[in-house]
Structure formats: C-alpha cells, structure tokens
Amino acid sequence: MKVKIIGGLGNQMFQYATTYALAKKRNEKLFLDLSLALNYDVHPLRINKLMCHSGTFETTAPKYEKHVFSPRIPSFLKKYIFFRCYMERKLTFNENLLHEAGTKKLVGYFQCEKYFTEYRDDLLEEFKPKESFSEVQNYIKNMIEQNSSCSMHIRRGDYFTNPEASAYHGLCNHEYFMNALKYLEENKKINRDTKIFIFSDDIDWCKKNIIIDYEAFFVTADDERAEMDMWLMSYCQHNIISNSTFSWWGAWLNQNMNKCVVAPKTWFKNGVNTDIVPESWVKL
Fold it and tell me: Which of 103, 117, 129, 227 has the fewest Cβ atoms surrounding its Cβ within 10 A?
C-alpha cells in the first residue's frame, strides 16, 4: 500500500494511519510518496520525524503519474492506473475503502479515526517522536503530569492571515474556549486547581487575549519540532482543541482512559461535511 503525503503534520498523520491500517489488513508493506510534501511551502514535512517503523519513504513519484493525462497514454492504461489509485472525493468516512482490495495507492486526507482506530496501540508507537524533549519541554511535561491539567490549542496562523484559509476553515472564537472550560468544570473534569496549558501558533496573541479564571501556562511553540508540542498536549488529562488536525492528534494521542476532549461542532466554516470528530468527544 502506498499513500501520497501532503499537508501539515496532522494531515500527514491521518494519511499514514489510514494506509497503515489497510496495509496491516492486507499483510502488505507501507510506502509513503513524499514527492509533493518535499516541495510544499505551506507546511514542512514532519512525518519522517516520527518513528513510523513500518513505513518506507519514497522521494519521487512514479513517472506514469506525471504523464497520466497525456494523450500518448492509452485509455486502457489510464483506467488501470486510476483503478489502483483511490482518490478521496469527500471528507466523510467511506467504509468501502476498507474493502477495495484492488486499491494500491491512496490520495486524500482520510480524516476519520474509523479507518484506523483498531490499530490504536500500534499507532501510538508509530507516532512517537524520534527526538527527545528539550530541558524546558521536560519541565513542562513533568508539571502537566503532576497536576490536574488540561490543554487548550488555539489555531490561528493562516486561518487568520490567509483570506482563503479563513473563509474555508474559520477561527474558533473566544466564546467557544470559555464554554469548553465551563463544560469541563460543570462535568467535574477540571476545577479551580487545574492548570491550563495553552498551545498556539500565535502565542503572543493568546497572552493578550485569553484571560481565564485558571492558572494558565502559555507554551511557546517549538517552531522547528512541532511534533513535540503535539505530544506535550497529549500528556494533559483533558484537551480543548481547535478545528485543527494538529490539535486533533494531540488529543487522540492522549492515553488518559478518563480523558474528556472538547471539539468545535462546526469544523469547516464553509459547511463541508466531515466525520473528523470521534463520537466519544464532546462537540460545542
């Protein structure tokens, strides 16, 4: 099984996880086509910084992909190529994908845990970072583990600066995060002794605008090693996430059996349907 890797770290992990699951079911090897990701100027390639024990990385795409629309390629060969390549057309879960034995390559995002949840224990190992926490990150990790803790991930970045991304994704507003804290407190998941660890790609904005009645710790992002921030979030007892695949994975990797994850009920501002939020998580 092979998958085309593209997007930010969160999307790269969805693509890996889904293909990993299909490869496992079929007893096949897992290959990752990095040809697009290596030149993607929006987000850096980071899946190769996770253990990914089962994956083999390929840096060039097959030559036929570059010429598949050429009139020189016979129509019967094009049909054969497309039959073997599954192109995701919707962001909702497609159970048929799990049973399409002819598919040899995946192209899409596959943002639903139903594709791979039965291999959760395997993926927790696959997605461990290759590098170690810094001294500061170890200090934060210890503080998280020794206290009642909850992460809050506030996604801004291109959701705020890029008009197209803003129109498509939208931003979770201040009210959402306050309601999430209120929900967790009313359901006795957190209390006034809980420490809130705030993660963001715009931490300076958060320091000025996120005022809460809890002890807050603003975690400066590791711009070079985003996976470290994701794993720090996972050590918190509970998680409040944005409409971001990055914070989604921070919550999914959380191994607290009693965790409560709060997610926005509207994932895409433009109304695109998605099955990204697991049924066990709370939508607000």
Answer: 117
